[in-house]
Amino acid sequence: MSLDYSEDMVQFTREPQLVELDDLIAKPVETNPSKKYFLALTFTASLLLIGIICTGITFYFGIGTWGNNQTIGWAFGITNFVFWVGIAHAGTLISAILFLLRQKWRNAISRFAEAMTIFAVMCAGLFPILHMGRPWLGGYLMPYPNSMNLWPNFISPLVWDVFAVSTYFIVSLLFWYLGLIPDFATLRDRSKDKIKKIVYSFFSLGWRHSNRHWRHYEKAYMIFAGLATPLVLSVHTVVSFDFAATIVPGWHSTIFPPYFVAGAVFSGFAMVVIALLVVRKVFDMENIITLNHLEKMNKIILLTGSMVGYAYLMEAFISWYSGVHTEQYSAINRAFGDYAWAYWTMVSCNAFIPQFFWFRKIRRSIPAMFIIVILVLVGMWFERFVIIVSSLSRDFLPSSWTYFTPSLIDLGILIGSFGLFFTLVLVFTRTLPVIAMSEIKGIVKGAQPTHNGGAN
Amino acid sequence: MTNNDTGYIKRTLPKNVGKLGIILFLVGAITGSVGFFLDPARASYSYLNSYLFILSIAVGSLLLVAIEYAANATWSTPFRRMSEFLASSLPLLILLVIPLLLNIQNLFLWSHSEEVAKDHMLQAKSVYLNTPFFSVRVFVILLIWSLFYYLIVKNSRQQDETGDLLMTKKNNKLSIIFIPVFAITVTLQSIDWIMSLESRWFSTMFGVYLFAGITCSALAALTFISVMLKEKGYFHPKITKDHFYSLGTLMFVFICFWGYIAFSQYMLIWYGNLPEETFWFMQRWKGGWKIVSLFIIFGHFLVPFSVLLSHPSKTNFKKLKFISIWILAMHFIDLYWLIMPGMNGNGLNFSFSWMDISFLVATIGIIIYMFNRMFEKYNLIPVKDPKLQRGLDFHL
Amino acid sequence: MSRSNKLHSVAAIFDNPDKVIFAAEKVRDEGYKKFDVNTPYPIHGMDEAMGLGSSKIGFVTLFFGLFGGAFILLFMWWSLALSYPLFIGGKPFFSLPAFFPITFETAVLFACVSTFIALITVFFKLPFNNHPLHDTDYMKQVSVDKYGIYILLEDEKFDKDKIIELFNSLGASSTELIYQPKEEKYSMFQPKYLIFLVFLAVGTSASTYLMLNKLMYINPFNWMEFQEKLNPQESSLFFADRRSMRTPVNGTVARGFIPYPYKGIANPKEVLSNPTLPTTSFLKLGKKKYLTFCSPCHGNFGEGDSRLNGQFPNGPTFHSDKVRNFKDGMIYHIITNGQNSMSAYDRQISREERWAIVDYIRVLQRAKNAKNSDLEEIKKEPSTND
């Protein structure tokens, strides 16, 4: 390890020319994809097709086709919802919080992470709508003056969810598009194809890279980042309120809001690492998305994983300390009851496995981190599963205690959500620049004035 | 990169500062001892309040130092020494905690064996809440903190002379270990000193709540002292408004974090509406406490939030000084609000006492005295830190 | 874009950011006002170099953020506490802690959307795809890796040659004259456009009609009009008599119905006692119901002078001694049960209204048989009835 603390992190393994960056980033957009790409797309699209079929079945026959039962009314649907909302959080964290912290290394990965945010929110949004049973009645979730003079119950955390997730989606989309405008302009000026040029002109809105615009742009970007930061915290906080505001033992815990947020960032970073590992390899972007970037991400995974571990400890300790029997029982039931297998999968994947990232060698080894982040994703999915299902399966009426078994439709929709996500990601890599050109150019050496008068 | 041309000249504070510290300490300590003599039970509560106040600043400052090392932050390197100085009262806490442990029966219901015998709930908790284990926990945690303080600060000071890069690396590792240790120890301390005052109440978020308050107060103390020193010209000339803007932003962020944690904790307990949890807030919504509760919402969140919201106010020295003193005061009131209502469940009737002030005065005296002593001995800026140059060159 | 020969501006390209920032300072110092710098990414310190103040976009955010938060808070208060108050989970109608999450989210939503719209339309004045700079070599370079300055024709000090000279002295790698594009005019009434409009109109209405009236009513869109239950008067194979309606079990009592114990008995031995008090409002109710149901046969004043003029048997007068000696319960019984050719009125007149009629009949009887002492009573106290 180098001992030089006087230099910032090396952003590129080899300092690139600005034109070179444009060529590299625009290449996937401007050239025809290879066979491998179509192979990958076929694979994800088939997963998506499974999802579409299962969704259609759910749509036609209702949610009786799921494994949910009278006792366990929330299972896969809500688990998947919370899981995907969590995945979304990493993108905003990278694009907003790291921007405010002036972490330059975010520039290389922000666009990609933001795109993943939007796709993940789209996946997440599917589940509550499907779970309604009559999705076409979903309009009643929004307060609009209807003939029955009914308003949504604003006191319900589930309605807070509607507001939080839709706000999050809209704001992320605007934030993302704002960053894309200069890149569309660059693509427009590069492109020789007439139709493409019209499309890029349309989306670039006629952006001219004018400094009179840049100054508002930078300020607005700062404001967006400043607003997106509390927003991203609030979204998963509101999701945690769905559980914590009830009095179900194992759900009613005040640590839920920060614990859910840490877990969300944790799983989101894992997903971003997986996608980046693939993208940098496929599109030859190892120079821009370097091992240093991945190492930083792994450090954050370690940090948030430890926070999640802290929350597990606190929950277990306070449930004992509270002296409330139902709380104590719910903690014991989680660890040693019917769902012990899920609980210990979750604890080992979330709290123990990331601890390997203490070692620098593992942080910088691509195969090792690939395995670890996949395990993290598995662990985080199981975390939501354990919270939801194990608590519900032991409700206040022992005669209705039961066990949850997912149906094939449940599994199909889960697979389909992954299909949807990765299909969108693949389409994105071919249609839009996966790295923010205007941002990455700004951190190349010599891209900023040296403040020495510039007279040379 | 040379580390010698930082242009720092060592100076000392006026002599009065040290004297002021001693006088404040003596005034507070003497009146406080009288208080212990007159009403030991009430005095214990006041003492606990001030003890946690100085603990917050000391251990919070150590945390800031650790975060700076662990995150490899550069802009805050010129400020690190002040946090080190503020943390210097940590080893003293081992002495300061002794009066509390002697008065443990005045504070905690669970330390009375006859009360425990009557109460099933206290019996269930007695594995954890008993005097020997409690004392051991308190001492072990203070020892751990002091050990980290000693090691980190020793390395940092040694680097001033040798310029050894290895020291930064060592401290980096120490800090990374300290942060999780801090998370667990501060949670235990929050449960021990505050939550167990009302031994039936529980909240999983409580450690995080105290952590937020601690960080706010440590940042406020750091900001106040840096602004004072900058105004009086003790500070490095290359410290610009950008540095103070960053400090202000950090304070703003932690104020928001505190608000978020406090609101979430209240909202969830309010929404769940379970008697075993709500009584704690009900206690703080009765009589005069209602005013204090409302004042904390405004004073600890809304006022600093609106003051620090705009860009120019984060670099305005007057506003920064005002708001950092305000936050420190609010942290004291917050601790007061956490601790004092517990008295009623302990057979005492709460009323405001002059002792609350006298211990606070003594605490401030200790902080000023320790700061002055450190200031005389050591450099205000880590002159040979490899990150220093980048820290000084920091621009937004 | 084809160009006219009207000049728009003079532009210069620079190779590195130091040069362009220096050039911007110089251009500003020379007194040019209408110039701009184009760079592929924002350059630190350029705002000061160009002499621009800080952006005011923050005020838009602040205003609309506060507005959005206040608006939704008021709206939630209005809808849950005033418009349709519902008691939910033991919480007050106006539950401030529970309203905070939505207030916050909406404030952020309003702030972000308004900032974005204001930024694009007001601050950037975009979309602007036919700006003269587009499709120039200048634009193609500054959007990749070069840095450019241009000075507009409108500037007071504009002088083409001088500016080119200035740019060259500042180390510009190339200069370029940018001309206005030729104006293009399109008529509203081109056949192509009109056909497009017609197709758009027909397409939109047809698809909306199909969507809202047909598509949304096929399976599985279930709007609960078709439910797995039997409606009244429907036939059903489930029961042997092929009817969906069932006769209620003996002794079934309808909800809100109090059975009358002397139903069907012509001359009951005992009757109910009057449970009501003859208050003014109650008597008014009795008058109203009397005039509706009783007066056609018994007359407006109970004198048996039917308005039906003999088309129907006259009802007896109420002022006979027999009727005056009836107990209240007996009159009630007759209304409820019917008598002689009078049918039962218990289906038309509610229980309370029947007692009100009884009270009103008592008033009529008293009025028809008033004594002098009654008049004195009235004189004694000032009239209280309105």
Structure write-up:
The complex is a heterotrimer of chains A (456), B (396) and C (386). Chain A is an all-alpha fold and 456 residues long. Chain A has a single domain (18-441), classed as Formate dehydrogenase/DMSO reductase fold. Chain A is 68% helix and 0% strand. Chain A is built from 15 helices and no strands. In chain A, helix 3 (76-100) runs antiparallel to helix 4 (110-131). Chain A is globular and about 70 Å long. The two termini of chain A are 37 Å apart. Mean pLDDT of chain A is 90; it is low at 452-456. By secondary structure, chain B is mainly α. Chain B has one domain (21-392). Chain B has 18 helices and no strands. Chain B has helices at residues 15-38, 40-70, 80-86, 90-96, 98-102, 104-107, 113-118, 120-125, 131-162, 165-193, 206-231, 241-272, 275-283, 288-308, 317-339, 342-345, 354-377, 388-392. Chain B is globular, with a radius of gyration of 21 Å. The relative contact order of chain B is 0.19. Chain C has 386 residues and is an alpha+beta fold. Chain C has 3 domains: 1-185, no CATH class; 187-247, no CATH class; 280-380, Cytochrome c-like domain (Cytochrome Bc1 Complex, Chain D, domain 2). In chain C, helix 10 packs across helix 11 (351-368). Chains in contact: A-B, A-C, B-C. At the A-C interface, helix 1, helix 2, helix 5, helix 7 and helix 15 of A face helix 1, strand 2, helix 2, helix 3 and helix 4 of C.
Major beta sheet of chain B, specifics?
A: none
| Rg of chain A, Cα atoms, Å | 23 Å
List low-pLDDT spans of chain A.
452-456
Q: What does the overall shape of chain B look like? A: globular
> In the residues of chain A, how many domains can be counted?
1
- Give the percentage of residues in beta strands of chain A: under 5%
> Unreliable runs of chain B, pLDDT <50, ≥5 residues?
none
Alpha-beta content class of chain B: mainly alpha
Task: Briefly note the structural class of the backbone of chain A.
Answer: mainly alpha
The count of DSSP E runs of length 2 or more, i.e. the number of strands of chain B, is 0
Radius of gyration of chain B (CA) equals 21 Å
CATH class of chain A: Mainly Alpha
Measured as a percent range, the helix fraction of chain B is over 70%
Q: What is the terminal separation of chain A in angstroms?
A: 37 Å
Q: Which percent bin holds the helix content of chain A?
A: 55-70%
Please describe the biggest sheet of chain A, giving its number of strands, its sense, and whether it closes into a barrel: none
Distance between the termini of chain B: 22 Å
